[in-house]
Amino acid sequence: MNCDKLVDELLKKNPTIWVFGYGSLLWKPNFEHKSRRVGHIRGFVRRFWQGNTTYRGTPNEPGRVANLVESEGGIVWGVAFQVTGKEQVTKALDHLTNRECTNGGYTSLVTTFYPRDKNNCVPVLVFTATEDNPCYLGDADLPQMSKQIVTAKGHAGSNVEYVTKIADYVRNHIPEDNDEHLFDLDTKVRDDLKTKRLCSHLLMLHTSRH
Questions:
Q1: How far apart are CA 100 and CA 54, in angstroms?
Q2: What pairs with residue 108 in β-bridges?
Q3: 205 or 66: which carries more pLDDT confidence?
Q4: Which of 195, 66, 43 is nearest to 136 (CA)?
Q5: Distance between CA 20 and CA 127 in Å, rounded?
Q6: If we measure between CA atoms, which residue out of 191, 179, 188 comes closest to residue 140?
Q7: Interior CA angle at 92 toward 102 and 82, to 5°?
Q8: How remote is the C-alpha of 69 from its chain's centroid?
Q9: What residues act catalytically?
Q10: pLDDT tens per residue across span 32-77
């Protein structure tokens, strides 16, 4: 659904909302929230198929950021943030609409959140990217994705930081999440970054001797 329309509907129905984070929202929500709960949503898997030309890349070298892909039996672990009160809800949704939709190319949907503690499930607002937006990069093999990530950076920082911080957060706070796509990509990115730094160091040594 269009982000603005969904925001309007949410504000009409309830001054309390839950927002599900599975990417940078895990470690950098940047909006006020009353509480947070670890859990998962169903019917999706996390992939790094969305391009980004603002926060983690440029038009010439787009970064890769997380999105959801529909998958029967799939599960995506993350964090649901509770936002309460009309003022806080409005501020949070304004921030998220600008961050995710306007500058990120994402759209939004509402699905069910299943908390880790198995308390009541709640509906959550989720931002994701689909194939019909101009920044969408789609699937690629691991070496190609890693090559793009290692070289890309935007005004929020490097694409490497984005991927590795998501992986670190999941390892430290959601150990039950066995996201092979995330962890395989994280390992490849770290290895390629080490190789890049070693090559740069060797080139500097070679240049200094001539």
A1: 11
A2: 127
A3: 66
A4: 66
A5: 8
A6: 188
A7: 130
A8: 13
A9: 100
A10: 999 999 999 999 999 999 999 999 999 999 999 999 999 999 999 9
